[in-house]
Automatic annotation (TrEMBL):
UniProt cross-references to SUPFAM superfamilies, sorted A to Z: P-loop containing nucleoside triphosphate hydrolases (SSF52540)
Organism of this sequence: Enterocloster alcoholdehydrogenati
Reactions catalysed, as given in the entry: shikimate + ATP = 3-phosphoshikimate + ADP + H(+)
Family the UniProt entry places it in: Belongs to the shikimate kinase family.
Entry-linked InterPro entries: P-loop_NTPase, Shikimate/glucono_kinase, Shikimate_kinase/TSH1
Protein name as catalogued: Shikimate kinase
The protein's annotated pathway: Metabolic intermediate biosynthesis; chorismate biosynthesis; chorismate from D-erythrose 4-phosphate and phosphoenolpyruvate: step 5/7
GO MF entries: kinase activity
């Protein structure tokens, strides 16, 4: 469908993994889930990697994986929420990808993540205030990395996918004019 990768970024719970799966099933794109690949290779859940090896170790794995993924195309790459915080990572994802930022308000995020316990960075402060603070700290880098921004509050996954595909096609048309 695309001759590049679609790279999904955004805060935890913005819907990156969900939208990647829908683009796989509904649009036939190959789905690459960075967190799942890292878990598989390390033989450990993300929370266990943070606990036993530390966050910097995990961040290095993310960078190595992104570099490796540049060999792909027409894949949807679902990043972990922290990936765009490293400038090097953003440079990598832009080499062969269009970067799509999914956003949602902290209240929506809290509702979506409250019953999941595999997000170590928010596990100890799962409140609107805690989520807002981390979101604010990340906003600037997220926006700087994005080629396209899609708000996800009160939209279904299918609606978000349709909007994403339409906007990317429109971007291509405009670029080719
Ligand atoms: N548009 C949406 N509307 C309602 N719930 C959603 C939506 N997108 C994702 N979710 C739910 O929110 C939770 C987190 O989504 P996920 O795709 O894992 O986010 P991310 O990968 O960005 O952390 C999941 O339970 C998912 O089913
Ligand atoms: O925002 C982050 O720093 C993280 C987000 C998580 O992925 P999701 O965004 O898919 O929850 C996961 O990579 C890890 O817990 C760190
Ligand atoms: Mg995810």
């Amino acid at each position: 469908m695309f001759d590049y990768n679609v790279v999904l970024i955004g805060f935890m719970g913005a819907g990156k993994s969900t939208i990647a799966e829908l683009l796989r099933t509904g649009w036939g794109m190959e789905r690459i889930e960075m967190d799942a690949l890292i878990e598989e290779r390390e033989g450990m859940r993300i929370s266990k990697i943070f606990e036993t090896k530390g966050e910097p170790y995990f961040r290095d794995l993310e960078t190595e994986l992104l570099i490796e993924l540049q060999a792909r195309s027409n894949a949807v790459i679902s990043c972990g929420g922290g990936v765009p915080m490293r400038e090097r990572n953003v440079a990598e994802m832009k080499k062969n990808g269009r970067v799509v930022l999914l956003t949602a308000h902290p209240e929506t995020i809290l509702e979506r993540v409250k019953d999941n316990h595999d997000r170590p960075l928010i596990e100890n402060n799962k409140t609107v205030e805690g989520i807002s603070a981390l979101m604010e700290a990340r906003r600037e880098r997220y926006m700087a990395a994005a080629d396209l921004v899609i708000e996800t509050d009160r939209k279904t996954g299918e609606e978000i996918c349709r909007e994403l595909v339409e906007k990317l096609h429109r971007m291509e048309e405009e670029a080719s004019r």
